[in-house]
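Researcher: Let's do a round of design. I'm pasting the structure tokens now; please hold your answer until I've finished.
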């Protein structure tokens, strides 16, 4: 029997407050693949990311989300992270009074700490953690002072995204969803973030990049591009589809799609 796809969405109907936003989404992503999900504002892209992350406000009416063949909709958000999923959000939260280093230590211990056999977690040794943090920051060209700053407090758009990339580097996930990682970034910040992602990416992983614009895709190259319109994926193709959307906008799809 062949191995199950890394990530699979099957006939997903989901929404918020009883209202259906996703109207039958199907998507399969294998290891070694980068997919882009594009679409106009309000089409349901973030809803898909929130459902996959296990956001409590969203409801699933029908369908499944499988990760390594397991239905993750039955798992808590922390369990999804322990399985190797990572989600970077469009609007990251601020945690005043918690330094970047402490936040990362908690995150790494919760996701990667080993079971101590008593229902708890063995913590990563502080020395080992500091070494790992230093190495990852060097690799990503992030200044050491960053580790002592409070999470997202007073961070610029670019710094917030950098914090996310550093978190991703520390957690070493196998599957990442990045929701509008490019929004609000100037061209230098966009370059830093995409360089970071490209450094972290390897053939054992897969990634779903959610983006409204084509420009992120100049820096991180997807092999597959999907377009979401009114809660459905109405078109899939290769990188040329993203270029076509950039040139023609989304309206031509609205006319051809039967939504
Ligand atoms: N908290 C909410 N309550 C009600 N409707 C919502 C809520 N959040 C999003 N929506 C609606 O869901 C639809 C999809 O939104 P979203 O998933 O954020 O789209 P996208 O990320 O593609 O811009 C939109 O029509 C939006 O108005
Ligand atoms: Mg969105």
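Researcher: That's everything. Go ahead.
Model: Designed sequence:
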């Amino acid at each position: 029997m062949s191995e199950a796809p890394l990530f699979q969405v099957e006939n997903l109907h989901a929404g918020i407050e009883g209202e259906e936003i996703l109207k039958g989404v199907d998507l399969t992503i294998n290891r070694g693949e980068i997919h882009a999900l594009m679409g106009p504002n309000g089409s349901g892209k973030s809803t898909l990311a929130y459902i996959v992350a296990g956001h409590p406000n969203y409801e699933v009416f029908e369908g499944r989300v499988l990760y390594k063949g397991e239905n993750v909709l039955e798992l808590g958000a922390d369990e999804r992270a322990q399985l190797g999923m990572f989600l970077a959000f469009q609007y990251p939260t601020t945690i005043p009074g918690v330094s970047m280093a402490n936040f990362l230590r908690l995150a790494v211990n919760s996701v990667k700490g080993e079971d101590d056999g008593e229902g708890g977690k063995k913590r990563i040794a502080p020395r080992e953690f500091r070494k790992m943090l230093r190495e990852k920051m060097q690799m990503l060209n992030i200044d050491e002072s960053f580790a002592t700053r409070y999470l997202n407090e007073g961070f610029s758009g670019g710094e917030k995204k950098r914090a996310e990339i550093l978190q991703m580097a520390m957690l070493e996930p196998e599957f990442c969803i990045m929701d509008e990682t490019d929004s609000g970034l100037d061209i230098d910040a966009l370059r830093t973030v995409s360089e970071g992602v490209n450094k972290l990416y390897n053939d054992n992983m897969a990634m779903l990049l959610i983006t409204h614009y084509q420009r992120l895709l100049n820096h991180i190259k997807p092999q597959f591009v999907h377009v979401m319109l009114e809660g459905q994926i109405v078109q899939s193709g290769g990188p040329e589809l993203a270029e076509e959307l950039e040139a023609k906008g989304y309206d031509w799809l609205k006319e051809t799609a039967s939504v």
